[in-house]
Amino acid sequence: MTNIFKVRGGNNLKRHKVEKRFRVYGMIAIATSLAFLVIMVGSITLRGAPAFKQSFIKIEMHIPAEKFNKNALQNSRFVSYLKETLRAMYPDVKTRKDKKQLFRLVSSNAEYTIRDAVIANPELIGKTHNFWVRTSSDIDMYLKGYVDENLPQSERRISDQQVKWIADLKKANRIEVRFNTQFLTGGDSREPEQAGVFGAVIGSALSLFVCFIIAFPIGVLAAVYLEEFATKNKISRIFEVNINNLAAVPSIVFGLLGLAIFLNFFGLPRSTPLVGGLVLALMTLPTIIIASRASLRAVPPSIREAAIGLGASKVQTTFHHVVPLAMPGMLTGTILGMAQALGETAPLLMIGMVAFIVDVPTSITDAATALPVQIFLWADSPERGFMEKTSAAIIVLLMFLVLMNLAAIILRRRLERRW
Amino acid sequence: MNKYTNPNGELALKKRSINKQPMDNHSILSAKNVDVFYGEKQALFDVNLELTANSVTSLIGPSGCGKSTLLRCFNRMNDVISTCKVMGSIKLDGQDIHDKKVDVVSLRQKVGMVFQKPNPFPKSIFENVAYGPKIHGLAKSSRELEEIVEKSLRRAGLWEEVKDRLEQPGTGLSGGQQQRLCIARAIAVSPEVILMDEPCSALDPIATAIVEELIDELREKYTIVIVTHSMQQAARVSQQTAFFHLGYMVEFGETDAIFTTPKDERTQNYITGRIG
Questions:
Q1: How far is B247 from chain A (nearest CA, A)?
Q2: What is the mean pLDDT of chain A?
Q3: Residue ranges with strand state E in A2-113
Q4: pLDDT tens string A256-269
Q5: Which of A113, B102, B208, B271 lies at a 20 to 30 A Cα distance from A172?
C-alpha cells in the first residue's frame, strides 16, 4: 500500500516555500504601512499635544471704582491700567526697553481677559482681585521648553531679564499651566496664544452641510436614473465614462470652476461656506454617483423581477425596493466622499476661504475658513507658537475624519442589520 | 424521497385522481403566430397555443428552447429587456395584451409570476404578501389587508407555519417556504393566471413535493402555466404539455398523450432522454 502522505520534498517542498515566502512578504508590507502610520500620527501627536496647554500668570490688580464706570466697561481702557500694575510689581524697571519686555510677559490680549472678567462680575470694581492672564506666546514657548537658554540673548526670542522674572514668578507660584480651552472654543488670532480652531471647525461643518444638502440628492438621483431608468446606449455610456473621469479631476480645477461660476458669474459672497460647500459638492458628486451606482448594481435583479412581476411600476420598484436596499451603500459612499471633502484645501483657496477670519461664522453666508485651510494658514505663520497649533489642528481634523468614517461603519451596520 | 417519485426512477405517470376530473374547458390565454426576437436572434418561431382555464399547462424542452421566453411573454416581462421584440398576438380573455390601451400594471396583476429562485422581498412575511394588494389598492382598510394576507398564506399552505412570526423577515424562511411565500404573494393580488418559471429547481425533493401538491390545489381557482426541466414533474402536475425545441413548439396536447404516445419524433427522443 502506498502512503499518500509521504510526498514531501521535490515539487511539494518548493510549493510550501513559495507559500511561506508570500506570507512573509505580506506581513512585511503590512508592518511597513503600520510603521508609517504610527510615525505620522505619533509625531503629530507629540508636536500638537502641548498646544492644548497654555501657561497663565497671576496678576494681582486693584480695579479702582473712580476709574471704571460699571456701565461703560466695554469701552474702558484696561491696557494702561494693566501696564501700571505690572510696573508697580517691578519698581526697579525704568528704561523703555525694559518696560517693553515687562509688558511682553503677558499676552497682548490680557487686557480683554481682565475686561471680560470684570464685565462678568461687576462687583470686582473697587476691589483687589487675582486675575489669571495668558502669558505671551514667547513666554509660553519658553515654559514649554522650546527655548534654549544657552544661546546668546540676541539669538532667542526672550531676554535674560524675562527669564529672571519668570523664575521669580514661578517661585512665587504665580505661573500655572492650564488646559487651553481657547484653542477649542475660539476663532483664529494673530497671537498664537489666543488662536483657536473653533471658527475653522464651524466653517468646515457649514461647508459640509451645504455639500451634503446638494451633493447627496443630486448624486443619488443621478445614480438611480443612470442605473435603473436610462437606456444603455452610446450616450449613456459617454455620461458614464465622463462621470468616472470627473472623479479623477484635480480638486483645484473645481476651485477655479467655483471661482469663475459661483463668484464671478452668480456673484455669490466670497469666502463663505455656501460657496465652499457648492465647490465641495461638485467635487464629491462623482464619488457619490459611482458609489451609489455600485450599490444599486449590487441589489439582486430577482428583487426587481419580483416587484415588476407583481405589477409594480418602474418607479415603485425602484423606490420601494431597490433604493432602500442600496441605501446603506449609498450613505457609506456619501460619508466617505464628504470625509474626502473635509480634508480638501485647494478648491477652498480659490474661492477665498483662505482669509484671516477671527469671528466664528454663524451662517453659511458669513466669511469663514475651513480646518485644512486653517492648518495651511498656521503652517505658513512664522511664529514659533503656531507650529504646535498646526499639529494640534491636524489632530482635530484627523479626529473628525475618524468620527466620520466611524459614522459610516455604524450606519452601514445599523441599516444592514435590519434583515 | 417524495411520494410522487417512482423508486425505480422511471417516469411517474400515475397521477392523482383529482387530475382526471373534467374541468371547465374555456380558453383563457391564447398565443397566435408568436415570434420573439432578442435583437437579431429569433428565439421563438410561430408559436400557437391555447390554454384552458383552471388547468395546469407545462412547457418542457431542452435549455434555450424558448419556453421561459414564451412564459415571460404572457405578462410582458420581456418589456424590461430593451432588445426583446414580440410579434403576433397574445390574448387574455379575448383581449390582446399588446393593445395600446392595455395597462401593463393591471395585466401583471391578472397574470402573476413565480420565479425560478425564491425571491421574497427583504421585508417581513406580512409585507411580502401585502405589497401587491397595497400597490393595486385592493384593500380599503388594514383589516381587509390582513384578511387578504391570511387568505393568501392559507391558500399557499404556509399560514400554519408562519402565523406566529408574520413580522419576521421573509428571507429567514427555508427555501421551500420562501417559494410558497412567493406563491402567496402572487395570489394575493387575485390573478387569473399564474406563471411559474421552474418553481422547484432550487428546492429539495420534499419541498418540491409540497409545492407540486400546492400547484394541484391552486388549479381550482387559477390557470397555471409552469416551465419545468423535470419531465416527471410535468407528468405529475399538468393536464396539458407543450414541448419546445430550438424555438419551435413541436407538440402540444394532453399530458398523458404526450408522454405515452408522442406524435413527433423529437418529442419521443426528448422524453426518452435521447436529446436535451
A1: 23
A2: 89
A3: 53-62
A4: 999 999 999 999 99
A5: A113
In a domain, A42, yes or no: no
Say whether both A272 and A387 belong to one domain.
Answer: yes
Residue B1 scores a pLDDT above 70? no
A168 interfaces chain B, CB cutoff of 8 Å: no
Domains of chain B in sequence order? 26-118+193-271 (3.40.50.300)
User: Do residues A255 and A167 share a domain?
Assistant: no
Number of domain units in chain A: 2
Q: Do A285 and A343 fall within a single domain?
A: yes
- Is residue A244 domain-shared with residue A391, that is, in the same domain? yes
Same domain, A148 and A209: no
Q: Mutate which of B68, B92, B111, B113 to test chain A, going by most A C-beta atoms within 10 A?
A: B113
Cα–Cα distance for residue pair A161/A94, rounded to 1 Å: 13
Whole-structure pTM value: 0.82
Quote the cell numbers at residue B59. 412547457
CB-nearest to A419 from B105, B107, B122 is B122
Cβ–Cβ contact A327 with B under 8 A: no
Nearest residue of A to residue B179 by CA position? A306
Give the Å distances, CA to CA, from A375 to A39, A99, A200, A380, B38: 19, 35, 9, 8, 60
| A120-158 pLDDT, tens digit each | 888 888 888 888 999 999 899 988 888 888 888 888 888
Return the DSSP state at A196: -
Considering the domain architecture, whether residues A165 and A226 belong to the same structural domain is answered as no
Which residue among B117, B135, B169 sits closest to A312, beta carbon to beta carbon? B135
Kindly state whether A3 is in contact with chain B, defined as any CB-CB distance less than 8 angstroms: no
User: Does the residue A175 lie in any domain?
Assistant: yes
- Strand-pair category, B56-60 with B240-245: parallel
Closest CA to A325 of A349, A350, A353, A302: A302
A148 shares its domain with A222: no
Residue A77 lies in a domain: yes
Across the interface, whether the CB atoms of B119 and A302 are under 8 A apart is answered yes
What CATH number did the domain enclosing A284 receive?
1.10.3720.10
Give the B-side interface with A, CB within 8 Å. Answer: 75, 77, 80, 82, 104-109, 112-113, 115, 117, 119-123, 131-132, 135-136, 169, 171, 182, 185-186, 189
What range does the domain containing A77 cover? 53-179
Strands B27-38 and A175-179: unpaired
A121 and A207 belong to one structural domain: no
**Residue B109 distance to chain A (closest CA, Å):** 5
Question: A47 lies in a domain?
Answer: no
**What does the alpha-carbon distance between residue B184 and residue B154 come to, in Å, rounded to a whole number?**
8
Q: How confident is the model at residue B4 (pLDDT cuts 50, 70, 90)?
A: very low
pLDDT over threshold 60, residue A220 = yes
Which of A300, A313, A325 is nearest residue B105 as measured by Cβ atoms? Answer: A313
Residues of A with CB below 8 A from B122's CB? 303, 325, 418-419
Beta strand spans in B53-101 (E): 56-60, 84-92, 95-96
List, for residues B220-232, the tens digit of each pLDDT value: 889 999 999 888 8
CA separation for the pair A198, A178 (Å, rounded): 19
Q: Determine the Cα–Cα distance for residues B162 and B227; give it in Å rounded to an integer.
A: 28
Span A47-77, pLDDT tens digits: 999 999 999 999 888 888 877 777 777 777 7
Q: A308 contacts in B (CB within 8 Å)? A: 77, 80, 108
